[in-house]
């Protein structure tokens, strides 16, 4: 049996219901079909989100404290999860600028030398620099990781399949 290939799926889709639906019903199953095990941060960190506690307290100060505790956990959990993976699959859609959390995760990944980054950017709103699809620094990080910035989902899944085949 070939070794398991885990991929960190950095994204901001988990912040809203429609994004969660697309992620859970389409993207994650398609990644699994390629043979890759997706490690998705909203799924992994979900048990640590103090949603019930934050809605049950009337004190703004108490809610801030709860979220501060969560914020300290989430960074450690996400970084530990990335260290367990061999591939990064960030989804860079959702705004003209890339989500700052995803950008930071990509920076962490690249500077730790954890492997290739195969990013997805289907949003037609490009970087303010017309020579790039995303911010030049992020595009450079993707290219230096020997990964690829894909501009369609079909291309992205094809790249995953090719990576998985070469990994075995």
| Count of alpha/pi helices | 7
Annotated CATH architecture? 3-Layer(aba) Sandwich
CATH-assigned fold name: Rossmann fold
Largest sheet: 3 strands, parallel
Strand content: 5-15%
Shape: globular
What is the residue-mean pLDDT, rounded to a whole number?
A: 90
- Please give the alpha-carbon distance between the first and last residues: 9 Å
Helix content: 40-55%
Radius of gyration: 17 Å
Describe this structure in words.
- The N and C termini lie close together (9 Å).
- This protein has one domain: Rossmann fold (3-Layer(aba) Sandwich).
- It is mainly alpha-helical.
- The protein has helices at residues 17-33, 41-45, 51-56, 60-83, 100-111, 136-144, 153-167; strands spanning 6-8, 37-39, 87-88, 118-120, 148-150.
- Helix 5 (100-111) runs parallel beside helix 6.
- The radius of gyration is 17 Å and the shape is globular.
- The mean pLDDT is 90.
- The chain is 52% helix and 8% strand.
- The strands form two sheets. The protein has a three-stranded parallel sheet.
Give me the secondary-structure topology.
Layout: E1 6-8, H1 17-33, E2 37-39, H2 41-45, H3 51-56, H4 60-83, E3 87-88, H5 100-111, E4 118-120, H6 136-144, E5 148-150, H7 153-167
């Amino acid at each position: 049996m070939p070794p398991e290939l885990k991929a960190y799926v950095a994204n901001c889709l988990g912040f809203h219901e429609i994004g969660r639906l697309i992620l859970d019903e389409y993207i994650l199953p398609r990644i699994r079909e390629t043979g890759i095990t997706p490690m998705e941060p909203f799924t992994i960190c979900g048990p640590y989100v103090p949603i019930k506690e934050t809605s049950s307290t009337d004190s703004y100060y108490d809610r801030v404290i709860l979220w501060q505790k969560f914020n300290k956990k989430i960074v450690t959990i996400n970084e530990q999860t990335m260290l367990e993976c061999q591939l990064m699959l960030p989804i860079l859609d959702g705004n003209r600028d890339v989500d700052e959390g995803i950008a930071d995760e990509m920076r962490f990944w690249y500077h730790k030398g954890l492997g290739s980054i195969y990013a997805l950017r289907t949003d037609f709103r490009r970087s303010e620099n017309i020579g790039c699809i995303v911010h030049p620094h992020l595009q450079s990080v993707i290219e230096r990781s020997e990964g690829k910035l894909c501009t369609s989902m079909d291309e992205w899944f094809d790249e995953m399949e090719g990576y998985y085949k070469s990994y075995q």
